[in-house]
Amino acid sequence: MPAEPRAQIPPADPAAPYDIVFLDRDGTINVRVEDGYVTRPEELVLLPGALGAIVALTRAGCRVVVVTNQRGVSRGLMSLADVDAVHDRLRARVAEAGGRIDAVLVCPHAAGTCECRKPAPGLFLRALSAAPWAEATRCAVVGDMPTDVAPGRELGMRTRLVGRDAPDLAGAVRALLDGLCESV
Ligand SMILES: [Mg+2]
Ligand SMILES: [Zn+2]
Is 102 a residue of the active site? Predict the structure, then answer.
């Protein structure tokens, strides 16, 4: 399935505070498109501070994995190639800033038809299977919807809900890296 990481995720820095930090995409890293989808790279508008937050995670030695529901694929509004092109742009923007996205996992399916559409845990489990060195209890997840963080919490990860626990991704990452975050 094209949404799988193409390779194993290499181990995090042994000194990193988290093995993997999972990030939701729309509404967390980039501006959510109202009643629609980011179908082309030009439509990807990053939220203030998002790039810096990802760079901070990279510098801390964490692996960064984006987990995103993109039901627009199943609805025929975009193709997996379109989604890949958006993610190529996202990775390039992060790389230019000095950070790294280590994997992007996408659920392209309709609601109720798969094991990977969040809040199902499939994307998280797939990433963990590509990172056998990682422990879920040494991972964290940041998202802007309760359905983003619920699967991580059930796996024992620390969670930060943007809009509730922190104003934005930058604030959430700051709290995670300062060790101020309790599991919620
Ligand atoms: Mg979101
Ligand atoms: Zn799915």
Answer: no
Tell me if 50 sits within 8 A of 170, measured CB to CB.
yes
Residues with Cβ–ion distance below 5 A, ligand 1: 24, 26-27, 144
Answer whether 0.85 is exceeded by the pTM.
yes
Known active-site residue 24: yes
135-154 per-position pLDDT tens digit:
999 999 999 999 999 999 99
How many CA atoms are closer than 13 Å to the CA of 94, on its beta-carbon side?
Answer: 27
List of residues 6+ apart from 27 with CB closer than 8 A: 143, 144, 145, 162
Distance 69 CA to ligand 1 centre (A): 8
Q: CA nearest 55: which of 21, 20, 94? A: 94
C-alpha angle 35/36/39, rounded to 5°?
Answer: 170
